[in-house]
Amino acid sequence: MNRLFFACLVVLVAAAATEAAEWVTIEADADAYVRYYEEWESEPQYADDNYGGEPLMYVLYNFYQWGVDIEIAYMHFDFSGLGDYDGQYLIGAQLVLHAEHGGAGWQRFLAVAEAWDEMTITFNNQPSWGGQLALFEMYEGYNYVDLDVGPIAPWVDAPETAYGILIWDTEQVMENDPSAKIHTRETDFAPELWLTFSGPAVQEASWGEIKASFE
Question: What's the pLDDT score for residue 210?
């Protein structure tokens, strides 16, 4: 076989291996929203109520003339099944949400910094927040939110630190409806996290077959 041709083939295969990617989908295993509502000169409402197990999560920040209404969505994804992957090779992360309503303003997507439970989380006991993952305006239907992989990559190597993602409004909503109504895992439109990893496209066994075919 022509050695120059074989050398070129090696380079091409190596380049293809470097550029190859693998995709992993993780479906939310917990989701909920929390709410705080207060009219001036009255007691706050809903701050101790739990909304885990509901078919929709709401996102809202509304500062009324007579009070305030805040709703924050939480979701958790189990990274424990990614033992074959290395966080340093994570090159893409996309959150896929199906909204029943949207288009009322931008939402901020943040990492959750502490553990929480779907059936006990409330506004008053909600976990602390971590760094920002995205700024995105959701609309009715499917929404594909590109996330910053920097804070997510460590979750691949240490799944116990993957506490989840939260969504809250960045600005006043000039309407009574939430800025987003998101379907939960209790429906056919569960939130999903799409992860993209770089990796070799040609395994050792298949490389041997390619090499043998030119000998």
Answer: 43
**Residue 82's beta-bridge partner residues?**
none
Residue whose pair of structure tokens reads 């000998």 in the numeric block: 215
φ and ψ at residue 200, rounded to 5 degrees? -65, 135
Q: How many C-beta atoms lie closer than 10 Å to residue 157's C-beta? A: 15
Residue-wise pLDDT for 45-96, tens only, equals: 999 999 999 999 999 988 877 789 999 999 999 999 999 999 999 999 999 9
Question: How many whole angstroms separate alpha carbon 69 and alpha carbon 99?
Answer: 20
What's domain 21-199's architecture?
Sandwich (2.60)
Low-confidence ranges of the chain (pLDDT < 50): 3-18, 201-211, 213-214
- The structural domains of the chain, with segments of one domain joined by +, span 1-20+200-215, 21-199
DSSP the chain: --HHHHHHHHHHHHHHHHH-EEEEEEE-SEEEEEEEEEETTS--BSTT---TT-SEEEEEEEE-SSEEEEEEEEEE---TT-TT--GGGEEEEEEEEEEEE--SS-EEEEEE-S---TTT--TTTPPPEEEEEEEE---SEEEEEEPPHHHHHHHHH-GGG---EEEEESS--SSSS-SEEEE-TTSSS--EEEEEEE--SS-HHHHHHHHHHT-
